[in-house]
Amino acid sequence: QVQLVESGGGLVQPGGSLRLSCAASGSIFSIYSMGWYRRAPGKRRELVASITRAGTINYADSVKGRFTISSDNAKNTVDLQMNSLKPEDTAVYYCNLAPDYGSNGYWGQGTQVTVSS
Question: Is the pLDDT assigned to residue 62 strictly greater than 90?
């Protein structure tokens, strides 16, 4: 079994910054990519950013230029630096580990990010 533990969520004012961290542990035999998804109230879960083991990065258009994803392959961790946060970034953020291309993979428990004045 694979466990993903997230940290770093919280309440921040518009324009502020937060950094999310995720550490994977357990029976990890392969990793194709790690990433972050979010689900806002009343909306479907959406990709925020992902990074493959080879270093290919993908961002949602809504966060490009504001969010930065990074990973440490040796430690099986992935971070998301979020700057210039907006109220519409408010959501539960989930860490994901995909062992293979196209795999749904494993999910963390989620961490709440609230952007509000």
Answer: yes
